[in-house]
Amino acid sequence: MSKQFALSVDRIKCDGRGLCAELLPELIRLDDWGYPILAPGPVPEHLIPLAQRAVEDCPVLAIALRRTQLKK
Amino acid sequence: MTGLLGTPDAMTPLPRVGSEIIDAIERSRLVGRGGAGFPVATKWRAVAQRSHGNAVIVVNGAEGEPQSKKDRVLMSERPHLVLDGAFIAARALRARHLILYIGERHDAARSAMLRALSARPEPERGRVTASSAPARYVAGAEAAAVHFLNEGIATPTNVPPYPFERGVGGAPTLVQNVETLAHVALLARTGHTPQTALVTLAGAVKRPGVLEVEPHTTIGDAVQRGGGATEAPRAILVGGYFGSWVEPEQAWNLELNPDSLRRNGLGLGCGVIGLLPASRCPVCETAGIMRYLAGESSAQCGPCFFGLRALADACTRVAERGSNPEDLKRLQRWAIDVRGRGACRHPDGAVMFLSSSLQVFGQEFASHRSHHVSRTA
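Structure tokens for the assembled complex are given below, as produced in the milestone run.
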């Protein structure tokens, strides 16, 4: 069992500013209304610094990067 | 048959139950009848584990689905059975407070429930309060009910925390549909559940209304009990607005129980069986329902608020101006994009309904022409 990180969005807080998709286009794209769609699965290790940046720079603090237990 | 509606609504002494009733519920494989079909025993255990005599029971009679009447009929005709179920839940989960959460427009149901409550002995009665659920589609969703009871706003909240973790007043809370509670009452009284279901027949049926059906009753049998179809149906909506359309040939032989429906990729949902008459345009019908569901978004999450609106607009364009490949492509793409992207399941339910429309009425969506044009041409 190894520790991994996953992104999540608080859908109620999210205002569709779109900064996250600019910072991390590898994992976040915007829908036709400007709201983020996250790639499924854990954040690859080399993208974790950028993911952290997306979390910190979100103007409404809607994004979180959480440790997840990898199942099996 | 002695089902829910076949049982006289007498107030009987409550059976002495403790947490062992949860094992009985588990053996009965009862699932929630509010729409989501969640296993009841699992939900009760989650509350029981966290309750220190402080749990809250929310008796959910909000019934926000426009075509559904079964919860109202049950509360009006068998209020004691519902209350029995609620008090049994209170004992099993060691709850101190019970809240009747009944749709604000369901006057007859509320009066019947309050009348039945007033006949109850004091120690029971004094632990119950009543609250009116706003007449909105999402008001009956668990988290929205808890939000309303805590803060007066019937919009869903982020989960976790789930109501069983932190619900009304921060206490572990069971939000349970009234029909589900009535089934528990019969289980506690007789040792078994009748395995019946309350369904609402709607649309092109001679006698629309509420029926209690046995597990092997097919949709065809139920429609026959409703006097038959008024005309050949184009499709049957199984489970209400968060359900699915089924071709009539397939629908007639489907049995109205959760297991059999699940094997066919369907669900009982809120129990609405809606017959769409062949004379009605399925594209226009879909557009109307999508418009309604878009309007019932609680406007908290962007993908739901903007996405459902855009989907309803695209459906309306197809309905009013005729089919066009751009809108058909958008509908397919947005139905996928929106799914799973709300704090609650409202957007999911709406796009699942839409996907079912696009599948069953694919031909109609592809070849639809403006009714205005076709009439004057």
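Chain A has a mean pLDDT of 92. The CA atoms of residues 22 and 48 of chain A lie 15 Å apart. Further analysis is deferred to the final report.
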